[in-house]
Amino acid sequence: MGAEPVEERHREGAPLAHRVPDLGALELLLAVARLGSLGRAARQMGITQPAASSRIRSMERQLGVGLVERSPRGSRLTDAGALVTDWARRIVEAAEAFDAGAQALRVRRDSRLRVAASMTIAEYLLPGWLIALRAERPDTAVSLLAGNSAAVARRLLDEDADLGFVEGLDVPTGLDGAVVGHDRLVVVAAPGHPWARRRAGLTAAELAAAPLVLRERGSGTRQVLDAALAGHGGLAEPLLELSSTTAVKAAAVNEAAPAVLSELAVREELAARRLVEVPVRDLRLRRELRAVWPTGRRPAGPARDLLGLTRRRAG
Questions:
Q1: What is the pTM of this model?
Q2: For the segment 47-78, what is each residue's pLDDT rounded down to a tens digit?
Q3: How many Å apart are CA 291 and CA 308, to the nearest integer?
Q4: Closest by alpha carbon to 82, among 3, 184, 22?
Q5: Cβ(180)–Cβ(115) under 8 Å?
Q6: Are residues 145 and 115 in contact, defined by beta-carbon separation less than 8 angstroms?
């Protein structure tokens, strides 16, 4: 199974179910990425290796791109396969969260929890928290509203959410909060970018002056970066300003420009050398992750349980 072009079978007018691989195929691709071997992935999934190979080939035909290269040393993802895997992970996590919510709806319909979370937390932390909450409260149906930190604050103040999670510098006006974790922003570039070869790293002034691929204003990531570079001339006009962490990563991987993102969001890209961390010598880009709620209204019921769960995990 090589990386040669795969015959294009995609039809834009076809139903979504015909254009998106099934969950089993996506889970198999994630297992190949994690284990580095199609055979080991097949064993973990409880299927034969020929069946796994057939499923991967079928997915490649469906998507019109090669996903996996096989060699005597094992299996590795193509560049396209790495991107598809990143998207697949979010689909599988979303399916787990969907299952948790659907199961709760089947059990009892009068216990609901509305959670609003900023994008990094929603993508990389909240799915695990919600699955853990389901184990503790299987009768609770959870709905998730994802957006930037400013949008989370609006949801809470408008009483459209019971509990929120943000990643900015401080607690938004009108809300109380508690720290549930810490995060670090990192500067990343594609391996071919000149910054990737800078052994001594960058100065904060160099970072501030460069056109970057960035998250939008109102996001916690952008708020922290703006504040950190305010004393170094402020951020230059971004090359691209995007509202999706996945889109920012894809732009950086494809050498549009370096980016600044949460360490949580780029762990796998750094491990696979699709991106390289670029040190900045004189800049601190750490931030606190907070649970937030309207001032004077301490979380109760399922919201209190979720808050307690996140704080225990942080400890």
A1: 0.62
A2: 998 999 999 999 999 888 999 988 777 788 88
A3: 10
A4: 3
A5: no
A6: yes
